Structures are given as structure tokens and as C-alpha cells.
Amino acid sequence: MGFLVTTLIFVVVGIIASLCTRICFNRGPSTNLLHLTLVITATVCCWMMWAIVYLSQMRPLIVPILNETE
Amino acid sequence: MMDYVNNLPAMDLMRSEKMMFAQLIIPVESAHRAVSYLGQLGLLQFRDLNDDKSPFQRTFVNQVKRCAEMSRKLRFFKDQIQKAGLLPSSLPSSQPDFELEELETRLSDHEHELIEMNANSEKLQQTYNELLEFKMVLQKAGDFLISGGSSATQETELEENVFINSDYADAGSLLEQEMQHGTSHQSGVKFISGIICKSNIMRFERMLFRTTRGNMFFNQARTDDHIVDPATNEMVEKTVFVVFFSGEQSRKKILKICEAFGANCYPIPEDLTKRRQITGEVLSRLSELETTLEAGLRHRDAALNSIGFHLTKWIIMVKREKAIYDTLNMLNFDVTKKCLVGEGWCPVFAKDKIQEALQRATFDSNSQVGIIFHVMDSTELPPTYFRTNDFTNPCQEIVDAYGVAKYQEANPAVYAIVTFPFLFAVMFGDWGHGICLLLGALYLIAREKRFSSQKLGSFMEMLFGGRYVLLLMSLFSVYCGFIYNEFFSVPFHIFGPSAYRCRDATCSDARSVGLIKYRATYPFGVDPSWRGSRSELPFLNSLKMKMSILFGVAQMNLGIILSYFNARYFNNPLDIKYQFIPQMIFLNCLFGYLSLLIIIKWCTGSQADLYHVMIYMFLSPFENLGENKLFWGQSVLQVILLLLAMIAVPWMLFPKPFILKRRHTEIPRPHLWSSWNFRCVQ
After folding, report:
1. What is the ipTM score, two decimals?
2. What pTM does this model have?
3. Cα separations in angstroms, B16 against B20, B40, B385, B394
């Protein structure tokens, strides 16, 4: 689906998650900031994981070589 | 932008709570109650004002001793309950709290009772054992003597009879001959009957044979039942023996040997009717004793049960009292000896709660004077206190295990709540196992109330305490499992078909040259064609190593940026100029550059060897890159980065210590200087 499109999807999911957290767990401004930090950290971690695996497969230097026994 | 950032409210867990230093002046009558209520609140940390005194010089040393004595008694009760095999049960306590003195007297009463009962039952058990042995001796030894008891008319020539041990065949006739004259005042044959452990009997017999020079006759019979040996509390097999001998000397020797071997001797009458009579008596006494013993055991179990109901409550009470007296020992008596003075740290938000607790203590103890609580200034650094809940507490504990943050420093636990489970998941990476872990974590959370009231083993307690961390770990594991495409190590084609296929229709060279990528990249995660192929490991290893480098560099950068925010908070431009900037330069010139190279290599598909590039950047920076060139201007950039990194190292290490030393010597501190000088001279 393309790198940029999926990145945009991650951004959108992150924003939706923070809004949901703000709606469901609204406990005062300082706690809300903490929740926002946690959601953003989680989104960035997950996106990085996906992006690394995607980028490494874009122009592969080695290809799968099937096993003898198969 | 910076204004917006500056005006944001402080994040909850980010910096430790503001603390204030307080002094308490407590009148003596309300001291105990005040400390008890403050302890229940748990928000004040007393400083030990009697640091230099030994434990025996402190004010409340007697009370502490009493508490220690009571906890010893409670431990004794617990042991006894365990030995008796009773399960500790707790009655839901609707009774009011006991006073300490009342509890003390009750505990000593119970202890006396228990010790007495134990001693009595021991004595009874001993008597019971003896009677049991006597009964066995009567039964078995009677068999030896029974044949000779009836014929009273036979004459014997006793002085001619030499009794040899080995002559068992004549046993019957010998016995017949000597039995009528078996009374002790005649110089005839006497016998000693008794019982001994089966394991000792061979040596016993041999010893008897040697000492009496063969002038004895030994007979033995094994018993059917086992007897409880009072010393070791186990069941042993015993053997009944009868020794026939003549002469007073032999008697003394034999008795001594019996004593040495731990054999119990029981005299039995030779007369059959008398034996039967005594046997009957013994049996009736035995059954009496049995009932008495059982009754005693039941009585003791009832007493232990009644203690066991309250045991946990008492243990908690005594622990609490000991803690209160330990805290009271930290306070000082003031000049008039009527008040206790204490100093401690408490968070600013707790001030009202503490004052309310102190007022309640004054009211409850009917004291005329109120407790004074006022804030003082202090020069030392306040302790670090984070307000955590069930969710953030385990993460804070994990971070504290590496090192507790200084007062009001940025708390890494904020990020660790997410990064710790995430990095666990990067290592775990299987959505099948992740779902199992998720079910386990959900079970722990669903049964929260039940588990929190129970007492769990140490491993379960750790698991239960970290149930929210487990939940996060499992959710991230499921996500990483999808990325690594592993369901119990089996890949699935969830996100579309694989991007690889054979080069031609016959797939002839699939096992030598391999497949070819003909479509766009597999959209989410590792392509399922990799699993099981020969080149799977080289590909996955390279991918995971580069992933670790990228995550590591990102996390290190996060740490250094947090230190920048710390320096800004504490208004420390020295740190910013001489620590943050050179650290950022050094990290990013070397490892940030490596990360950049990794990403460029992935995006362009170049064949460059990154090991080679990084190593020769240091060894021969001016050499031509050749086939390792990834982008235009790379060699120039590498030289610039190398120079920057080399400048950053002395920038990081040297200026700050010298500036700090200059600041320290510039400030006039006469008393400090003289004490420092004095120590040097010493």
C-alpha cells in the first residue's frame, strides 16, 4: 500500500487513540498530559517497528532460497 | 511554540512531588496515638534524631523488648499449630482492638497453658509406651515360660546343669527343669525379661554371652506391632528377650548391659495365673490411657484452634506496635521532658491530611495541648516521592531498581511504562504466544479483588503485582507477532499474497538461486515466503540487528533530550552548554550517522558494506570510497563528522569540572574552609 499511506494511517490511529483516552479517562490536566505522552510513545514505537521491517524488504539484496527437502 | 510548551501544566509522574520539612512537637500523652494515626496515613518520613544512641539507650527500649517477646510467643503458637497439622483459619473479627497490656497477659496465659499441656501429654505418652512394652513382654516372654509353669514335680540337679547358648534343641527340657526353682532367693536360675530395639539385639546378645562367659541362655521373639520411640518420635520395631542366668554377679552385669543398650527390663511373674491377671490389668490401664491421651489431644487442638482464629490479627497488631515504638524512639524529649520533638519530610499536598490526623489524635487522647506542626527550611536535598497507582507502581519499581531519581529530576518511568513492555515484545514476537499471555493477564486482572485479599506465594505475588505490565506486554507481543509473522512460529498470509515467486514456471532454480520479488512489498510485516528458506537467517539477522541499532539510538537520544529538560528546570546553563550539546553531537555524529546509512542503504538497495564504511571512516578517512559510496558528498561529510566527534569529547569532559572548581573556591566559606583544613592537617 505504500510507505507514506501506511504512515498516514498510523498517524490517524494515534490521533484517534489519544482522543479516546481523553474522552474515557479524563482525570485532570496533568494526568491527561501523562496519558497523551503514553499514547504518543506507543504509536511512535509501533510505527518505527513497522517502518523498519517494511523498508528492509523494499529492495532486497538476498532472496528466499528454498530448502532441499521441500 | 516554546511559550505553549512552557505554559503546559506539569505532567503527573514526570517529576517527584514537592516536599517540605516539618517539625512536630507532640505532648507525651498523645504521642502514641499521633504516631499510630500518622503511620496509617503513611505520608510522613521521620528523621532519626537519636542516630548516635545505641538501641539500649533509647527511650522506649522496654516497650520494644515487650513487643519482641510477644512476637516470639506468637511465633511459638504458629509453630505449634503447624506441628499439630491444623489449618489456620481466621474468624471475621467483629471484636474491638485489644490493648497492648491485655494482649500481653493473654498471650502469656496461652503460652503457659500450651506448655503445660505439651508436658502432660508427653508424660502420658511415655507411660503409655512403657505399658505397651510391658504388655508385649508379658505376651511374648510368657510363651517362653509357659511350658515350664505347670509341672512342679520334677526334680533337678541344678549344679550339674551348664546352660549353653547354642543348645536350642534342648530348650524345652532345660526350661522345664529349672522353672520350679526360679525364685530369686534360691541359688537357682533366674531370668530377666525385657524389650530392646531390633537393630541392637545381635550386639546385645553377643555382649551378654561374652560377659557371662556363656553361662546364660538367651531367647528372643519379635513383636508384631511397632512402638513409638519417645526420643526420635518414630515407629521402631522392638524385640522381646528373656535372659536366663545364675548368680548375683551375672545379674548385676546383665542389668548394666541392659541399661547401656537402652533395653527396658520388665519383671514378669512366672506363675501363669498371675501373669494373666497382670496382663488383664495392663490392658485395662492401656485403654484408659488411650482415652486420656485422646482427650488431651482434643483439648490441645481446641485451644490451638481458638488461638488460631486471632493469630493473624495479633501478629499484625504486635508488628504495628513495634513499628510505632521504633518511630517514637526516633523522637527527642525536649527540655521540659513533657513533649516529644520530631522532624520529618512530607509532601506538600499531604499537609492538610497530616494536620487533620494530628487533630484527631489530640481529641482522642483527651489532651489539653494541641500538637504543633510547622514547616522549617532545610539545606539538605529532600527525598524523592512519586505518587503511583496500581498501574504505574510496578514500572516505577523497575526503574527504581536501576537507580532512584534525585529530587525533582525527570522520571524515566513515564516512558518506561511503554518502552519496557514494548522491548519485551520485540524479543517475544509471536502472536499465538502473545494471545496466551494476554489471556493470563486478563485472568489476573479479572480476579483482582480475590487475589488482593489472599496471601500469595512469592512468585504469584510478583506476577499479580505486575498484572498491568503483563497486559501491556501481551498486547505489544501480539502486535510484534503480526510484524514478525509468527503464530507459534508458523507464518500466515494474512495481509495479502507473498511478494516472491519463482523465476520461471518450472521453479527449477528455486533451490539454487532463489525466488524473485515481482510485486510491491508485503504490506505489513515480514513476508511469509522467508520462513523455512535457506537464506532466512541471514535476512532476519541483518534485519533484527539493524532494528536494534535504530531503536537503541532513538532511546539514547530520548535520554539525552530528557537531560536537557532537566537542565532547563534546574536553571543550569552549565549543563546545557558543556554536557547536552557535546553529547548530542558525539552520539549523532557517530551512531546517528550509522542509522542514517542504514536507512539510505535500505531505500536505495545499494550493496555497500556498512561495517567497512564505519571502520574505515576512522582508519583512513581520506581514502576513496569506491563501491561503498551511498550518496554524493559522503567522504566530505564523513571527515566533517569525524572532526566534530573528536572536538566533542574534550568539550564534554574538561570545561565543566574546572568551572565548578572555580565556583567552589570563589565563594567565601570560612567555616567550611577551616574544618577542611583541620581534617587535612590531621
Report:
1. 0.95
2. 0.75
3. 12, 22, 5, 16
